[in-house]
Amino acid sequence: MIMKILTRSSVLILLVISACAPRRDLVYFSNMANTTTTNDAQNPEARIRQNDIVNITMNSLSPESNLLFTSKNISPGASLNGYRVNKSGNIHLPLIGDFKIEGMTIEEAQSGIAAALSQHVKKPEVEIQIVNFKVTVIGEVNRPSTFVITDEKVNLLEALGMAGDMTVYGKRDNVLIIRTEDNHKTMKRLNLNNQETLNSPYFNLRQNDIVYVEPDRSKAVEFSSNTRIAPMIIASISAAAVLIAVLLRR
Predict the structure, then answer these.
(1) What does residue 142 show for φ and ψ, rounded to 5 degrees?
(2) Does residue 83 have a pLDDT over 80?
(3) Which terminal residue of the chain, N or C, has fewer Cβ atoms less than 10 Å from its own Cβ?
(4) CATH superfamily of 53-130
(5) pTM of the prediction?
(6) One CATH from 3.40.50.300, 3.40.50.2000, 3.50.50.60, 3.10.560.10 for 134-215
């Protein structure tokens, strides 16, 4: 009889502990019906901003001029990997001098620089890449890190994929996006269990965005001191039950 009571007590403790952990929805966009369609989120092209570093290559009918844009002959004011946009929004280029590039898309900057170069060389072709376009993913993901994006386009799911996806403790309904624009930080929380998130302007990330995945309460319960003590209590009760059973048989 005593053995049965102690065993039932152990089971009851286990049930109480498991009840403390909230129910977690581990499926992305779980409210999306099988036949549901949604409009693509607005994904404006990346615009060049202050402190961006742009790598510029130029090809024309003048090999001598082309060499001016190689890394071996980079102009003063340029970083090791390209040209840094200064506080005035300018970069200093060979043949042209200061050129305002801030606020332009990649295509706009390419066309503008090519037009300026056409006064000095024949048929210039310009290619630009933002080499410091990066996003950071931290929190409850398997591989938190900062990732460099080579094509200036990345959405939230792609960034989470690069970080190895969320752990089972990540709160899919409360992902925080921290964005800095014009020295002003904005924060937005997105629910990845809701299909409407696909239409959010924060779903498509911008350069220097930070993605923070918050842990849910179940992790706090699992790693709390009370939870760590519970197995010891259960083991003690089981040991006591065995001892009492042995004594009663004598």
Answers:
(1) -75, -30
(2) yes
(3) C
(4) wza like domain (3.30.1950.10)
(5) 0.69
(6) 3.10.560.10
